[in-house]
Amino acid sequence: MSGLIDPTTSILEQALDGLTSRQSAISSNLANIDTPGYQAQTVDFETALQREVQAMASTPGNATEPSAGPSAAVAMRTTDPRQYSSIASNFSTSTAGTSSTTNENLRNDNNTVDLETEMTALTETQIRYSAVSRLLTSKFSQMYDVLGGH
Hints:
- This protein is mainly α.
- The protein has one domain (7-103, 112-143).
- The protein has helices spanning 7-31, 46-57, 70-73, 115-146, and strands at residues 41-43, 98-100.
- It has a two-stranded antiparallel sheet with strand order 1-2.
- α1 (7-31) packs antiparallel against α4.
């Protein structure tokens, strides 16, 4: 990892990779909506990314949430175990896992793709990808400014 890449950048990069994998799975599901017996695929990268963030945060010497001072008042707090609790570094290259979903409402052809579910997931993925892209662009813009860019 480059000296310019910090833990936040690494997390954002992994999020973009996971969202790209999810987009591919959704595209595949939509392409196979009329294929008899096709099982819809999902990509759950958030769980793997969260596990790595928590593991890295518990390692001595890694970034953790501040416990005192002005930063403690604005430290990221979680209200749900699915949320990220800290920023950490050095993630593995593969945090996304593809799995087949089981849908109780099977169609007569045993295809588990639901158009409404897939379109909702597609929209959510696009919104998240856009937000993470903007955060990463902002991070690189900050580095550019620090390095004397105009």
